[in-house]
What does this fold into?
Amino acid sequence: MKIKDTLENYIFVLPAVSIFSIFYIIPFIWVFYLGLHSWDGISFTKVFVGLENFKEIFLQDKNWWQSIYNASYITLIALTFQNILAFMLAWACDREIKMKNFYRVIFFIPPVLSEVVVGMAWRFIINDIDGANIINRTLISLGLGQAAHNWLSDPQTALTTVAIVHCWKGFGWGFLIFLAGLQTIPRELYEAARVDGASAWQSFKKITIPLMIPVMVLVAILTVLGTMQVFVLIVSLVGGEFAGHTSVPVLRILASMRGSSRFGYACAQGITFGMILIVISFIQYRFSKKGQ
Amino acid sequence: MLFKNVLLGIFVGFSVLGCSGQKCDTKPTITIWHWMTDRDAAFQELAKKYETLTGVKVNFELYDPSDAYSQKIRAAAQGINLPDVFGILGEKRDFASFVKAGHILELTSYMEANNNSWKNSFFPKALAVNEFVSNNSYGINPGIYGVPIDIMTIQMVYNKKLFAQLGLNPNHPPKTLKEFLDIGPKVKASGMQGLVSGWGEVWMIDCLANNYAFNIMGKDKVLATIKGQVPYTDPDWIAVFSVFKQMKDSGILADGLVTMINKSAEQLFANEKAVFAFNGSWCVNVYKGMNPSLEYGAMLPPQASDKFPMAIWGGAGSSFMVNARSKNKEEAVKFLIWLSNNDQQTYLAQATNNLPANKNSLSKIPEILAQFSRGMDSATHPNIWGVSEFSPVIETFDRGIQSIIIGEKTPEAVASEVQNVKERQIAKQKAQ
It folds into this structure.
């Protein structure tokens, strides 16, 4: 009877497990297998090269590490500027302000837009050659003509410009999660603090921040995982890797696959990238645990 | 009982009729996957025409953009699920991989039948892109493996109206690099943009750099470099890299060129904001759609040297291959013979403003397209050289030129970097 019950349970989960295995587990293992081979993505034969692909990534591929640096730079700006903005806006919308429902809707529009659309729209706004050059024209009209610049075609500013556009697109997700977190804080705590004579800043420091730490950790982990994988926005804003200045890991993987027909190497890059993200997430998690 | 027998009889009757219907339908359907959005309507018309003539249904399926098409073809190849006819986007080594994996039917016997009638209808350079010669470095049996559908050349175009505004003769575009560079300061002073091209997509940089390499050092030395016999630090290669530095310094290059995609470059030229463009002959159809009144001419890239002729990339623009495992191989070949004959090629050229692959179909093409076709005499293509450069070397080469244009690196530094990567790739190849 017990065996029969167990078998019945397994039969019920079998379809889901099968689908999960076919579309997640097997490809995951296959990527590791391909990473140990040299393969052009077309031939039926694959040449086993062992750890040669990984050796090349760690010891020879400077372009790969530049892409990791660029993605980390965009992520750092997202973790700071984007998430601080998202938190402050969520905090403002959590309070009793006019038109807060309207703001809640508006702030959530950028994240739901396609990255291609966002990139093309911002390229049109920023670019002075094939765009409307709105930013520069505004600066000139405000008497700040010296600040006008080729934001996207100057290697010094291209990556930062991409990061800022990414923040514009991405802050809505953080806003939503922070808002949900703020709304779970019992109002009685603030009332009790007010009765005890705490100022707004003290309430914020002693009640809001500590209770929001788990939410902040979640947002930080999601920000890192999402931002490190950005690439569509870069292609639609800048056209490509711009001599390496806007190169990111996903574009390097695509270049290995499509440009060089080195599927085995691309898989090795994917595995390396995945490991880096796991390590970063683990460090963040441990850091947050210590903080709590 | 009677009712049951009647029902059974009706059932049997329908079954027999149904089977009879299937037995009558013996004509196959040929499925063709392609990526050419500008030609899909024309292909569909030709498919209808072919079905009317022969009863064979041809199913053109469009998958775009070309990146997505390329991935679809590779995935289908892995699943041995390719359509009857398809194209391959990529380098010659990718083409070779498909042939080695048994996906592509060799067409030599069909091409040479009836006294080479099919073969002789094509421009030789168009066919050469689809051919593997004896002793090729890819290890493929010599033969023809694809059918060119059109030809293309990648050249420069110039706006005649803007030329006149700059005080230049619209009928005499620059022939030498010096003449070209001298226009730079005039362009800058006028507030116009100079040369536009999709150099955010690095392959177009590679194309122009190779053009100048052929012009400065000749074909043999370029191929010797690819074979590893000549280093990229050779003075001739530094001269090639220096061409881009000179262009940058003269102001002839448009602002933001290194982040420009080709679509943006086409829009800038069509909207008369740029004096020059570096683009392929497919641009004729594109410019016509964007600005039918645009007055422009085609020209070869201005020569940097008198030692060797300027070469441009040209040859087969798009080609179709027959799936070697297809059950409809013979019908697929017959369709491609029909598609590449004079009438159909003339129709395609007129409907889509692309150069025909059939050399007998040039008589009714527009003048601007004819200017592009004259560039075929100077055409070459990496796919006919018989050797391929290592992909990491090409990437470093193209990125290096981008770095020269944005003023980050010198030609010498780039040459050294490219040579380092080349030496590493050669060592790796020897170790394997």
About this structure: Residues 94 and 232 of chain B are 25 Å apart (CA to CA). The interface with chain A takes residues 67, 70-71, 74, 77-78, 90-91, 93-94, 97-98, 100-101, 103, 193, 198, 200-202, 254-261, 264, 267-268, 391-392, 395, 399, 402-403, 406, 408, 424, 432 of chain B (CB under 8 Å).
